[in-house]
Amino acid sequence: MSNELERWADTRRSLVPSKEERQHTRAVGNLIRETKFNGLKVDAEAALTGRIMERAVDLDNYRRQLANGDPVLDAVLSRIEVGFVDKAQRIQRNFGSEFLS
User: Fold this and answer.
1) Is the pLDDT reported for residue 2 higher than 90?
2) Total domains in the fold of the chain
3) Is residue 3 part of a domain?
4) Which of 18, 26, 35, 84 reaches 20 to 30 Å from 12, CA-CA?
5) Contacts by 13-18 with C-beta closer than 8 Å and gap 24+?
6) Is residue 6 part of a domain?
7) Structural domain of residue 89, as residue ranges?
8) At how many degrees (to 10) do helices 19-67 and 71-93 cross?
9) Is the pLDDT of residue 31 over 70?
10) Does residue 33 form part of some domain?
11) Does residue 31 lie in a domain region?
12) pTM across the whole model
C-alpha cells in the first residue's frame, strides 16, 4: 500500500513543476505530517490508557491489602478507589482524543 500511496503522491511530469504540481506536492507533505501527528496522538492516548489501567490494578491490590478482609474498611476504600477511576476517566476523555467513550 505504501508504494501505491507514493505513486499517487508523485505527479512529476516535467523537470520544471507547474503551479498545480507544486501545490500537490505541498498538500501531500501536509497530509504526511498530519498523518504522523495523528498517529502520535493515538500512541499517546494508548500509553495514557495503559498507565491508568496499571495504576487501577495497583490501587485495587493495595485496597485489598489494607482492608485485610474487613468488609467495612473494604467498602470505604472501594469508594476512594472508584473516585480515582472516575477522575482518571475524565482525564482520559479530556486528553484531546476524538474517540467516543
Assistant:
1) no
2) 1
3) no
4) 35
5) none
6) no
7) 18-94
8) 170
9) yes
10) yes
11) yes
12) 0.68
